[in-house]
Amino acid sequence: MVVNYASSRAGADTVVAAITSAGGRAIAVQGDVSKASEAQGVIEAAVREFGRLDVLVNNSGIYEFAAIEEVTEEHYRRQFDVNVLGILLSTQAAVKHLGEGASIVNISSAITHVHTPAAAVYAGTKGAVNAISGVLANELAPRKIRVNVVSPGYVVTEGTHTAGISGSEMEAGMVAQTPLGRAGHPDDIAGVVTFLASDDARWLTGENITASGGIR
């Protein structure tokens, strides 16, 4: 497995260590997926290290909240470059190596139907991810490559801590909307992604699974 990172080598190394300790094999590869050459470099590193490519999980993403009065061109482009262009460039680099039975899993967000205030740009990027995924599911189906989406609800991550969301009133509000009564954790999402990447999901393509603790 290749663990891609843009800037946090330490974080990627932690993930690699966890995979290795569980008996897996993984390497960390730096690359900004919003740049074609670097997205291609990540894919080439995977093929070079492991000899083939079977699964692509497009999980790179950033989020910034801003009321409509505060939206700037930079705010828009930064999120669309990583969240949307990054998926296109990574998938473009990967498809030449993916064969029959391969799986692409794109990470979207339940925010596309929860419609959280001050999230117009971020929600827009994830709406684009959903549309792109549907198109690619049809486009790549003749090659027997599956494309599916996972849309998490509120999940506690390093990003939520950095953004000051964890422990905030905003977090409390999102948990209050969650029928299962708690925030999500990365493991809650990982199991869904693993399923979609596996042969158990061989009859699924073009699907969007909302993993949100019941938020609709």
Question: Your description of this structure?
Answer:
The chain has one domain (60-211): Rossmann fold (3-Layer(aba) Sandwich), CATH 3.40.50. It is α/β, with parallel strands linked by helices and 216 residues long. A four-stranded parallel β-sheet has the order 3-4-5-6, sandwiched between helices. It has a two-stranded parallel ribbon with strand order 1-2. The protein is globular, with a radius of gyration of 17 Å. It contains eight helices and six strands; from the N terminus they run βαβαβαβααβαααβ. Helix 1 (9-21) links the parallel strand 1 (2-5) and strand 2 (27-30).
Task: Offer a quick outline of the entry.
The protein has 216 residues and is of the alpha/beta class. The protein has helices spanning 9-21, 36-50, 73-95, 111-114, 120-140, 158-162, 169-176, 186-197; strands spanning 2-5, 27-30, 55-58, 103-107, 146-152, 208-211.
Summarize this structure as a short list of keywords or feature phrases.
single chain, 216 residues, alpha/beta, Rossmann fold, 4-stranded parallel β-sheet
How many independent structural domains? Answer: 1
Class by helix and strand content?
Answer: alpha/beta
* Biggest sheet layout: 4 strands, parallel
What gap, in angstroms, lies between the N and C termini?
33 Å
CATH-derived topology:
Rossmann fold
Whole-number mean pLDDT: 95
Tertiary shape: globular
Strand adjacency order, main sheet: 3-4-5-6
Q: Provide the CATH top-level class.
A: Alpha Beta
Structural Rg? 17 Å
Low-confidence segments:
none
Protein name: Short-chain dehydrogenase/reductase SDR
EC number: 1.1.1.100
Pfam family, one: adh_short_C2
Family: Belongs to the short-chain dehydrogenases/reductases (SDR) family.
